[in-house]
Amino acid sequence: MKTLDLKTCAIHTMTNKPWSLAQCIDAYASAGVAGMSVWRNVIEPIGIAEASRLVKQSGLKIPALVRGGFFPALSDDVRAKAMFDNKTCIDEAAAIGADMVVLVVGAVVGMPLTEARKQVADGIAKLLPHAQANRVKLAIEPLHPMYAADRSCINRMKEARLVCEQLKSPWVGIACDAYHVWWDPDLESEIELAGKQNTLMAFHVCDWRPNTRDLLNDRGLMGEGAIDLKTIRRWVERAGFDGMIEVEIFSTEFWAMDQQAYLKKVCDAYLQHV
Amino acid sequence: MKTLDLKTCAIHTMTNKPWSLAQCIDAYASAGVAGMSVWRNVIEPIGIAEASRLVKQSGLKIPALVRGGFFPALSDDVRAKAMFDNKTCIDEAAAIGADMVVLVVGAVVGMPLTEARKQVADGIAKLLPHAQANRVKLAIEPLHPMYAADRSCINRMKEARLVCEQLKSPWVGIACDAYHVWWDPDLESEIELAGKQNTLMAFHVCDWRPNTRDLLNDRGLMGEGAIDLKTIRRWVERAGFDGMIEVEIFSTEFWAMDQQAYLKKVCDAYLQHV
After folding, report:
1. How close is the nearest chain A Cα to the Cα of B139, in Å?
2. Least packed by Cβ within 10 Å: which of A169, A170, A243, B252?
3. Do A210 and B150 touch (CB under 8 A)?
């Protein structure tokens, strides 16, 4: 297994939530991190034109804009609004030169998950022409089952695969985030299958803390939890994945730290534990 | 689908954590609830002889003693201690006339889940003669994937089924808790299969709250969350399950209420939403 360096690494701006886009760019570039995935909340205060200018002059590679999705809804109006937002998301991805938009597909309390997944497939199908026209890929991110009620009706690689198989487009694939799928007994075989089907678009890393204190914002640094990231990386690489490895950590605890010191820990953990 | 009454209902003593065993018995019997599953923490302060006497004179049916398990460990010594505890657990189940011991099978941070599952199957195999001799069933409870790091390496009905298929004993089966498995795309087919294999030993209900605040103690009352309990009950009954339906709610919020008023809400929610 090859030794990693920071040329393979992209950090999600949300990892350093207290920072602006400009601060992320300066810090990542100075640290030698080669890539950055951009969350929309850092674009919003400065606008897409300025964001695009900053990103392009940074020289950083941009695997993803994060995030689109949230397709299922109880009314046509809400679904139409989601479609509009998703098209804007693709436009922004194209403007900053991102390879893909990550899709958190959505779920609606009270709607059967099977119906929600149908609406997800329908929504992505409708979005595809716009994605293809802009040469932006759409990466379905299966979310941990603890988000099945209200954030994502796709909770395993398998259900993401079923949507990909239905839509059969090179512009639709899967973002494999270890935090969400590490527990899945079918993970190895699904990663292998995604490799064969050319749908493995992204690999996200962080760690699962024992005694997690919060369902959203208590992710761990790589190496401080239960996930065997090196084994999952081996599966992902064996499946042919050669993109950047993206660090995505949401943590109230780490957001309260000095972000420069924290970035150093992120980089060290990446080199040691992924 | 038949209308439920409280003669089908058993409540886990942990649902009313502030109460002693005697208080649970009085309150459940007065409310017309026909069954009770007993957690070991209410036995401990009074001893098994007194607990057995109280339970037997109550007339309540006792589906389960909760809980045994925690088989995987890093050393033989720790595994031997778990085996001792599990035998005691079976003895206590027999003493209070419980049909089964519920198994939370365990997991160890850093141990691959596949290895942990192997140790679970080995542990249950070793425990089986004692269970059979005492005529106490062992019910493997798949736990939600959010507990995969440190509480349970069995997170879907399927992995519980694989252990049952390996051990092939009428004394080993599955406790299907809607809270843990409601999100599983294979739930319906696995329940059907468990029915055919005569392994469906228990059906537990509560609800999954949107924006769950705590991974352990923020379960919802039936009807206030995302789980379609009536549909799951239909699957379970179609699979031939005719045991009691067990209410098991851990909730810091509800434990702070007047427990008599809370029990009324539990019974109403059971009749209305299961």
Report:
1. 21
2. A170
3. yes
Identify all chain A residues contacting B146, using CB atoms and an 8 Å cutoff.
144-146, 212, 215
Which residue stretches of B106-228 are H helix? 113-133, 157-167, 178-181, 187-196
Which chain B residues are Cβ-neighbours of A154 within 8 angstroms?
A: none
Looking at this predicted complex, what is its ipTM?
Answer: 0.96
Burial class (CB in 10 A: 0-12, 13-18, 19+), B59: exposed
On chain A, the residues whose CB falls within 8 A of the CB of B145 are 144-146, 183-184
Per-residue pLDDT of chain B (274 residues), as tens digits, is 888 999 999 999 999 999 999 999 999 999 999 999 999 999 999 999 999 999 999 999 999 999 999 999 999 999 999 999 999 999 999 999 999 999 999 999 999 999 999 999 999 999 999 999 999 999 999 999 999 999 999 999 999 999 999 999 999 999 999 999 999 999 999 999 999 999 999 999 999 999 999 999 999 999 999 999 999 999 999 999 999 999 999 999 999 999 999 999 999 999 999 9
Q: A71, A123 in Cβ contact below 8 A?
A: yes
Q: b/e string for A146-161 if b means 16 or more Cβ within 10 A?
A: bbbbbbbbbbbbbbbb
Q: Decide if A210 and B184 are in contact by the 8 Å CB cutoff.
A: no
Cβ of B226 within 8 Å of Cβ of A159? The answer is: no
Q: A196 CA to chain B: closest CA distance, Å?
A: 23
How many Cα atoms within 13 Å fall on the side-chain side of residue A250? 10
Question: What size, in residues, is chain A?
Answer: 274
- Structure pTM? 0.97
